Amino acid sequence: MKYHLISLGCQMNLSDTERVKTVMHKMGFSETDHEDEASILGIIACSVRQKAIDKVYSRIYKWNKMKNRKSLLTFVSGCILPSDKEQFLKLFDLVFPMSELPDLPIMISQYGIVTPAGLQHLESERETLMPKPEALEKEQKTLLLPFETNKPAVAGLKLNPAAGIDEFWHVEPTYTSGFEAFIPIQNGCDKFCTFCAVPYTRGREVSRPSVEILNELSNLVEKGFKSITLLGQNVNSYGLDKKGEEIDFPELLRKIGQYGQNSGKDFWVYFTSPHPRDMTDEVIEVISLYPVLANQIHLPVQSGDDGVLLRMNRKHSMEKYRHIVGTIRRLLPNATLFTDIIVGFTGETDEQFESTRKIMAEFQYNMAYIAQYSVRPGAASSRWADDIPKEVKKERYHLLTNELTKYSFEYNKTLVGKSMRVLVRGRDRKEGYLSAHTEGKIVTRFASDNDDHIGQFVDVKIMGAAPLSVEGKLVHQEILQTQ
Which of 172, 182, 273, 202 is nearest to 44 (CA)? Predict the structure, then answer.
């Protein structure tokens, strides 16, 4: 029997999907890329963007029609708002928070599906999937929002969808790559940005034990993984929920850097996403000390205008943001800078948008993930008028995209003539070429038909530049074989 999974949204959902695969494989199911071959169809959903939710509805309507000709079980998990969950309960066979993933075999059994593994000993199977730590008392709390404008739009909403997340973290991932991996270090968010639904889909901030993180990382490195990304909604607030019991984010990075220094292995460690409010000089100082901590920083700004940032409840000013970028430029002069930006947020004036356009020139981002504002139920801004016309949002989106490509192109041209170490990730869309990325995650392609390079570090001399990518020539005598 086979299953088919669709993952929508951020890297955290991709990481969650890898743990879902482990549970399915333990039950005896094999994965298929073809929906028609599957007996179980699942979606790891994202309620953060309306477009992603629209994809969920489109898919489940198709799947429910398929039930007219074959026996199917459908499920949905991931980031799900209460309003979306209410509708999904009518459409999917199973709807559950990701923290309940270890119980999925029991849910499927109760639904009446007999797996190839038989499911005779589901509770012991659950123990295999998720070795339990020492029993701890778990206190269930109804969490209140920090101030009036942050009240959820859904009455009686409890911010505890991640209850049991520690058990979920004990499910070992089924990695989709043999050289790139995600490690979740933190779940949830305490920031309550007015545009964001994450506190209502993933709950409050919870830090994973550092011992587990470091063990998972060392195991990956020993297996030959070359690129590892630490994941969380606010990675640099790691440990703040367990003060006195757990190390903080700079210390976690320091321990990773020291391990890398002592291991003699070649690998790069990234993290995403930090929040400017909790970004300290110490984080940047630690990165500067250890080569395995990659010189690439993803620092979401969302808007370049203090008035918009205030309405967004971002809890950082542009003065604070400029200080962080200045520290990055001073201590990590070779680092690339990525960001997230929202255009057309409620009440954004032409002058406020112009402030955002100007920071594209000021910071000269290497990559910016630009989104047109969309209302999400549950977030505080859902009670405000979405008063920026769609055509204005589109115009602002295209203006910022043009700025991004201009400054990205200027940076990439400075790389021409240089030899860059890159990690080869697979075949490029251009026939006869391989695709890679630099330590700063600049997409790099070079001519080669040798698939043995995939998953390896090689040296490439940059011969040409384009917006958002470069093209190079393999330096054969300097190929780094690290297996």
Answer: 202
Q: How many CB atoms lie within 10 A of CB 461?
A: 16
Q: Which amino acid is at 103?
A: D
CB 165 within 8 A of CB 136: no
Closest to 7 in 3D by CA, of 90, 104, 78? 78
The whole-model pTM stands at 0.83
CA–CA dist 93, 109 (Å, integer)? 12
The pLDDT of residue 111 is 72
Q: pLDDT of 77-116, one tens digit each? A: 988 888 788 889 999 999 998 888 888 988 888 776 544 4
- Using CA atoms, how far apart are residues 224 and 456, in angstroms rounded to an integer? 9
Give the three-state DSSP class for 84.
helix
What is the bridge-based pairing of β-strands 419-427 and 433-438? antiparallel
CATH superfamily of 419-478: Nucleic acid-binding proteins (2.40.50.140)
CA 230 – CA 15 distance, rounded (Å): 10
What single DSSP character describes residue 104? H
Q: What are phi and psi of 142, to 5 degrees?
A: -90, 115
pLDDT, tens digit, 9 for 90 and up, residues 25-40: 999 999 999 999 999 9
Torsion angle of C-alpha atoms 167, 169, 171, 172, degrees rounded to 10 = -160
Q: How far apart are CA 205 and CA 97, in angstroms?
A: 16
Query: What CATH architecture applies to the domain 2-129?
Result: 3-Layer(aba) Sandwich (3.40)
Cα–Cα distances in Å, from 261 out to 249, 251, 293? 18, 15, 10
Q: Is 315 left (phi over 0), alpha (psi -120 to 50) or beta?
A: left
DSSP run (H or E) holding 93: none
**Interacting residues of 452 by C-beta distance below 8 A, sequence separation 6+:** none
Pairing of strands 443-447, 433-438: antiparallel
Own/partner long-range contacts of 210-215 (Cβ < 8 Å, ≥24 apart): 210/239, 210/246, 210/247, 210/252, 210/255, 212/169, 213/183, 213/185, 213/252, 214/255, 214/256, 214/259
CATH class of 295-413: alpha beta
Helix (H) or strand (E) holding 481: none
* Domain ranges for the chain: 2-129, 295-413, 419-478
Residue with tokens 């101030």: 147
Burial class, 458, CB count within 10 angstroms (exposed 0-12 / middle 13-18 / buried 19+): buried
Report, as an integer, the average pLDDT of 116-122.
Answer: 41
